[in-house]
Every structure is written in C-alpha cells, then in structure tokens.
Amino acid sequence: MEKLAVVGAGSMAEALIAGIVKNKLMDSRRIWVTNKTDHEKLISLQNQYDVQTTYNLNELFQNASIVILAMKPKDAAEAIEHIKKYLTEEMLIISVLAGVSMNSVEMLAGQSLAIVRAMPNTSAAVGKSATALAINQKVSAEQMTLVSNMFATVGVTAIVEEEQLDAVTGLSGSGPAYIYYLAEAMEKSAVDVGLEKEIAKEFIVQTLLGAAEMLSKSAKEPKQLRKEVTSPGGTTEAGLKVLENYRVQHAFIDCIKEATAQSKRLGEDISAGMNV
Ligand SMILES: NC(=O)C1=CN([C@@H]2O[C@H](COP(=O)(O)OP(=O)(O)OC[C@H]3O[C@@H](n4cnc5c(N)ncnc54)[C@H](O)[C@@H]3O)[C@@H](O)[C@H]2O)C=CC1
Ligand SMILES: O=C(O)[C@@H]1CCC=N1
Question: Where is the Pyrroline-5-carboxylate reductase catalytic N-terminal domain (predicted)?
C-alpha cells in the first residue's frame, strides 16, 4: 500500500489532500503531512481529513513511496536541503512548486530522482482542478499511472512538456484567483445597486457556474455566447462598454502573461541561488 508524505502543508496541499481523501484514493492514515512551523494547520488537517501529522522526518519518510513538495518556491531550497537525505530513487516525487524545474529539484536534492512536476489549482478541493503534469525520465509507467489517477480524482489532467508549465501556472494555476477577484467585484457592485448580500452571492455563484457549464457544453465560442447575451441597445451592451473603456480584456491578457512571466522568474531565482 502506498504511503504519501506531504512536505509543505498549506493551501495547495490541503486542496489535494481533500480531493484524495474525499475520493478515497488512499487510506487517509497512509497520508503523512508536515510543514515548517504551522502546527495549527497540521491539527486542522488531522481533524478534517484524519491524516497523520509529524515534525519527525524519520517518521514522515519511513516507507514513503510518494512525496509531495508543496512549500512556496522561495522556501524550496531550504526545505529540500532539510529533507534530501530521506529522499530515494525509488520514491516518486511530486512537485507542485510554481516555476521550479525538475532539474532544480534534483540539483537541490543532490541526486537523481523520479519527479512529476504538477501544476494543479486549489479547485482540487472540490474535484475541479485543471492539472498539467510533466515527468522526467526516471518516472516508471506504474508511477505515471498512479499519479495520473491521483490527479484525475481531483479534476481534469493533461500531460505537457515541462516548458509549458509556466503558461499553465499563469492561466489555470492562478486562474481561480482571477475568478474570485471578479466575484468580489460582483458582490461589491450587487450591494451598491441594492441587492442583499446572501441573494447576490447565490446569484453570482449560479451565474459563474452556468456560464462555465455553457462554455463546457456548448459548441459555440465564448465570443458567440457573449453576443447571445448582448441585446442591441440593452443592458449587457451598456455594461460591456464600460469594460471596454477600461480595457478589461487587455488587462486579463496582460495579467495571464505577467503571471506566466513570474512563474519563469521564480524558477530563475532558484537556479540563480544554485549558481546554475
Ligand atoms: N495556492 C495555489 O493556488 C497553488 C499553489 N501552487 C504551489 O503550491 C506551493 C504551495 O503554495 P500554497 O499552498 O499556496 O502555500 P502555503 O503558504 O499555503 O503553504 C506552504 C506551506 O509550506 C510550509 N513550509 C515552508 N517551508 C517549509 C519547510 N522548510 N519544510 C516544510 N514545510 C515548509 C509552510 O509552513 C506552509 O504550511 C507553491 O510552491 C505554489 O507555487 C501550485 C498551484 C496552485
Ligand atoms: O501564486 C502562486 O505563486 C501559486 C502558483 C499558482 C497559484 N498560486
């Protein structure tokens, strides 16, 4: 039976653990989690998902077959330095670190490792992540099946070349935050125009869900779907004109490009720190 060791128990780790446990992919008692100092987070994960928590690295890594690296990229060098003596060639390392290449992980660990670099998003918690996976040559076919199954339980998956992961990070890794940002604006405006917060929230969520399902199920392009909402001289047209004036579509394009560039920069910072 597999044993999973999660290093860096924060938001992303929790989303994955939630997905894995809810979907019964693993026995929760075979999932061991640690972080740097956030003991409260560990207790909360233990209470919510019945996983095991520890600050003892021997206990964490003993018989572990899969290791998830989920600390912030800036903490990766220190964290990997700290755990490297416990890592083995037989373990499957899953790194969700934005920007950090598989090569950098191996360099930091000072050894050759079977690595899957994944870019999920926090919607994994509700089984709706979009996860891109890149693998190095040491990953076996069985390990690949295992990891694909793991991420398939928390959403859709695609295998990509490692170079594409920065773009995935800018688009769908960070993507939920762009939608929450829109939802925040919709909530604020709804209250301003006289709706109660509770009704507004339900209607915003339903509007987002409905639009997402239309995008998913309809054969029409987003532009066409937008046109179908927009009556000439109507309310949508009036609203969209304001968005055009603010160049909101350009802002979103620049936002995704900048997030992608930041993913690249995070990786470069790690490489620079190693002088490679
Ligand atoms: N939050 C998100 O939406 C997504 C995050 N990611 C990636 O996931 C990783 C984690 O992001 P979040 O969960 O948002 O961060 P977070 O700050 O919520 O969690 C990071 C955790 O790492 C722990 N940590 C730091 N140094 C450590 C060390 N030396 N040893 C053990 N644990 C250590 C911290 O205590 C913290 O609990 C990042 O690399 C990020 O790029 C990837 C996809 C989406
Ligand atoms: O903001 C970040 O760096 C991480 C990566 C993708 C989503 N959150």
Answer: 3-99
The pair of structure tokens assigned to 241 is 């004109």
**Residues 144, 133: Cα–Cα separation, whole Å:** 10
Domain presence at residue 264: no
Decide: 108 in ligand 1 pocket, CB within 6 A: no
Is 270 inside any structural domain? no
Q: Is the dihedral of CA 108, 113, 119, 123 positive or negative?
A: negative
Give the end of a domain, one of 112, 145, 165: 165
Span 72-108, pLDDT tens digits: 999 999 999 999 999 999 999 999 999 999 999 999 9
Q: Is the ipTM beyond the 0.85 threshold?
A: yes
C-alpha of residue 65 to centroid of ligand 1, in Å: 21
Backbone φ and ψ for 101, nearest 5 degrees, come out as -75, 160
Q: Residue 10: inside a domain, yes or no? A: yes
| pTM summary value | 0.95
**Residue 264's closest CA among 122, 169, 132, 133?**
169
Q: Count of residues for the chain?
A: 276
Residues flagged as binding site: 70-73
> How many structural domains are present in the chain?
2
- State which residues form the domain around 123: 4-165
| Distance from the first to the final alpha carbon of the chain | 38
Is the distance from the beta carbon of residue 117 to the nearest atom of ligand 1 less than 6 Å?
no
